[in-house]
């Protein structure tokens, strides 16, 4: 194991985060706060409790997950796309590193940032709505799993993308709709029966449901199913990344 | 034979179907400066990129310091430093940070003293904490070299290192390259400036259309293929070469005022003395004589065009 390489990539990527602290940290917090003001305070006061949880508190896990997913994808995809774009990737390709090490470095740094952000948003939410955390251990677990899975997903997008447009297309066209329709702002039981079934094909439903369970003990789907689906998503991403490095897809000719 | 890099039967066909390398065999000797010459698109960069692990070979093997570059890539790559042709640098990072990154990436523990030394050797000390985007092209080239050296490689690839580099940096660079060879580093460079290869290389390889045409000691190559020319500036123009001078490789300029005699450097005798004597006999006077050696460039051009 080339630990110095992992350390180097991690430090290098984290340095990028600190350099862009305002846009990395401040803007997600600001936009989440706006969600709380609009949905939590203004509209939420007219909406009744959902499964015994006030609407303001109900959307907290959804909003945290929304941020973690979108930030994970954008960080991780940009982190690997940038060296590809500038050409500095040659150094990583010519270094005595295995794909696992490259992955731990890039994805580790992106996931760290996402988790810090998620935690900050949880803390910010406390300013708007009172909530408690029922299963802190599971909460941390879901946070970590989601961050890592979506960073891997972002990493794949970053390698696949051959232009800035593609880099933004997947998060915008696929991930945002899936998160909005994944129960961030509602329980899927509020949907008509047919949509309840369709919604179960959306992997984000399981992530948000599991995370919400770890806070309030209420969930749309069984927590074991949530955990299983999250792990499955993680496994699929790892498999794709393994294939990318094995074949050199979009990295080596 | 003490080869530090041993390329056997290496070929590369890109996905587009373009065959960049055809069954290349090449041995680089430990501690030498090897210059790889060839026209654009000859396969120089492909060859380097395969050895460094950036491009996958289609067939053949490469050993770097005894380690297979694919099966034993960690050991092989940790020996190698690469300065790419393009100025591909980070933008927002400082010179020192980017060097520390390179060193770590190649599995070496941090060593601020060594990094400081490389910065000094490349006259980058006063730019150490400057962001790379603020540097000039020549400075960025130095940064790329500094990055390649930051993990103390014993094989260094310089792919067109002097492209777009000013005279001063070029001189510094060659001085540094010679210094590194003295410390036991093997250097493989490609260049368009043939006079540079002539100036610095121990051995020269010529590659054209994906094939190694020739590998020779530089001096042997110069001797073997080098021709010398003696140019005589005549006092009075002549209309044709007198019949008595037949059998000598002579050429008359159009206006009849210059006579060019070509001869082999390592022939039994140059024939100059007899030429001058015979010119005298024919009453041809000359006011000046100029002798020149053919450069590597001429050798190169004649070799490459021969193969076409």
Structure, explained:
The complex is a heterodimer of chains A (253) and B (308). By secondary structure, chain A is mostly helical. Chain A has one domain (3-247). Helix content of chain A is 77%, strand content 0%. In chain A, α3 packs parallel to α6. Chain B is of the alpha/beta class. Chain B has a 6-stranded mixed sheet with strand order 6-7-8-3-9-10, sandwiched between helices. Chain B has a 4-stranded antiparallel sheet with strand order 2-1-4-5. In chain B, a hairpin with a 5-residue loop joins β12 (250-252) and β13 (258-264). The longest helix of chain B is centred in the middle third of the chain and has 16 residues, at 167-182. In chain B, 35% of the residues are buried. The model of chain B has no long low-confidence stretch (mean pLDDT 88). The interface between A and B is medium-sized, with 26 and 35 residues.
Report a brief summary of the structure.
Chain A has 253 residues and is an all-alpha fold. Helix content of chain A is 77%, strand content 0%.
